[in-house]
Here is the input.
Amino acid sequence: MAVLYLHGGGFVLGGLESHDDVCAEIAAKTGVDVVSIDYRLAPEHLHPAQLDDAEAAYVGLGEHYACIIVAGDSAGGNLAAALCLRCAARGLKQPEGQVLIYPGLGGDANKGSYLENADAPMLTREECLHYAKVRSGGVERSEVTDPEISPLLAQSFYGLAPAFVVTADIDPLRDDGADYAARLTEAGVAAEHRNEPQLVHGYLRARNMSRRAAESFEAICAAVSRFAEDAAPE
Here is the structure.
């Protein structure tokens, strides 16, 4: 059993070192092997380079592990969800579960949390739109039609991996996670959504300083453990 962890950073930042502590703590708390990848970043490498790297890692891990959980925060949560969609489109085995941590999934940036939290600490609405534009090579997010960039645009969510989606309440991306969990549920996929009051985007960095962040991290690790237990042979 392994977790494929996809780091956040708006598709332009982050890497193995930026999330090494998070991955190590997930492994220590769950007993599951955690593999993180240094996927290619924009603007030097545009979409679909990041997802191609995630798929290659997933397929490669499948040669060594019978069961894989995909997880990721922020941009990594987007990649984890998009990887599930790609697996469905290409006939690949679905992961045992998808754990999405304050993911950006391409929701409507002109309503809901995008407006309510437009100037939130750590991540603003304008930054969300900027990162998406850089990733796509200059295409405005409102013009994107590819669900591999914006998973909420998918026509079908049937048969995707069960999900645990956690969001930060003071975050432009909050409603993306809630809407994704709702779409999965409508398609008959087991999905749990947990929203964290008073927390901001990127709060995993504060998991050893903030009680609320620590409790959320415990819930994330518990979700990984549940997916692992459900996948374990009798």
User: Anything to note?
Assistant: The chain has seven helices and six strands. The helical segments are 20-30, 49-61, 75-90, 113-116, 125-135, 174-186, 211-231.
